[in-house]
Write a structure and sequence with these properties.
This protein is about 75% helix and about 0% strand. The protein has about 100 residues and is mainly α.
């Protein structure tokens, strides 16, 4: 069994309803305008942040290489200090 409720069409075409709908359309157009600006700025932000992440990943890569080379340098300098003339002449306690 199906019940169909028919509403009178003249109630939807009254002046207050049309005025309300015109205000609603005006506010929605403003909302769409502001949201399009927001999307534009957010896309720029995402673009700049992706560039930042790219540069920071390069920085981290180079800094890890620097730390690797500095650890090698410290290792060689400690071996040099242990095998130098001063350490053979004087007693130098080993750190290892």
């Amino acid at each position: 069994m199906c019940i169909i409720i028919l509403l009178p069409m003249h109630g939807f075409l009254t002046y207050p309803y049309l005025k309300y709908m015109s205000e609603y359309v005006k506010y929605m157009s403003e909302y769409v305008k502001y949201m399009s600006e927001y999307v534009k700025y957010m896309s720029e932000y995402v673009k700049y942040m992706s560039e930042y992440v790219k540069y920071m990943s390069e920085y981290v890569k180079y800094m890890s290489e620097y730390v690797k080379y500095m650890s090698e340098y410290v290792k060689y300098m400690s071996e040099y200090a242990c095998n130098s003339y001063i350490s053979k002449k004087f007693v130098v306690p080993s750190l290892i």
